[in-house]
Amino acid sequence: QKEVEQNSGPLSVPEGAIASLNCTYSDRGSQSFFWYRQYSGKSPELIMSIYSNGDKEDGRFTAQLNKASQYVSLLIRDSQPSDSATYLCAVNWNNDMRFGAGTRLTVKP
Amino acid sequence: DTAVSQTPKYLVTQMGNDKSIKCEQNLGHDTMYWYKQDSKKFLKIMFSYNNKELIINETVPNRFSPKSPDKAHLNLHINSLELGDSAVYFCASRRDVRETQYFGPGTRLLVL
Q: Which tens digit of pLDDT belongs to each residue from A20-74?
């Protein structure tokens, strides 16, 4: 059974703080990893993709992957109220993409 | 230009009815998906098609039947609708396994 687990939250951080989102997955054969952001009433949109162990940075976002621990995380630096959304972790096995339950993040001004 | 489009955006219907949701992508992608997102926001894969062939068929009631007339279209037909079918249904597509999926705007289905 391919499973993706996320802390469901909700997670609340003050504006300007670092938000840390975590995700674990069950299948060691997984190949690629994605973080999506979903605003209420909207469709998921890609924030970051990561394929190999280590860190990947894009602006205020950093994705971290540890395949040995089957763990992927997303850090959001200098959090803004506009970052308030549900963040979905997605893990890919061939053509099969599985999503975690999502973590709801609220950034308070 | 809309990359992945779905029709209708909203669908309100009675229990027992049959309905269809259509999805089209103009990205030239080979793989398309249907996901169901329930009220708790959990996004669950239902079906995946690659070049018009079914490759993933999760534990979904057989009242749900996908149809792919060509690789740009993946439609979802639902027979004998039940209250528990109420959810947002997302269509998505992607080019290959390493790339992200592009999602449609979603179809909000309410079964009364």
A: 999 999 988 888 999 999 999 999 999 999 999 999 999 999 999 999 999 999 9
Q: For residue A19, with 0-12 CB atoms within 10 Å meaning exposed, 13-18 middle and 19 or more buried, which class applies?
A: buried
Of A51, A38, A41, A44, residue with least CA distance to A91: A51
Chain B residues whose beta carbon lies within 8 Å of the beta carbon of residue A38: 41
CA distance to partner chain B, nearest, from residue A23 (Å): 14
Q: Are strands A61-66 and A54-58 parallel, antiparallel or unpaired?
A: antiparallel
Torsion of CA A4, A97, A63, A24, to 10 degrees: 10
Q: What is the mean pLDDT of residues B35-44?
A: 88
Residue B86 in tokens: 């109420």
- The answer to whether A95 contacts B101, with C-beta atoms less than 8 Å apart, is no
Among candidates A94, A98, A99 on the partner chain, residue whose Cβ is nearest the Cβ of B97? A94
Question: Could you give the CA distance from residue B16 to residue B11 in angstroms, rounded to a whole number?
Answer: 14
Cross-chain Cβ contact A44/B42 below 8 Å: no
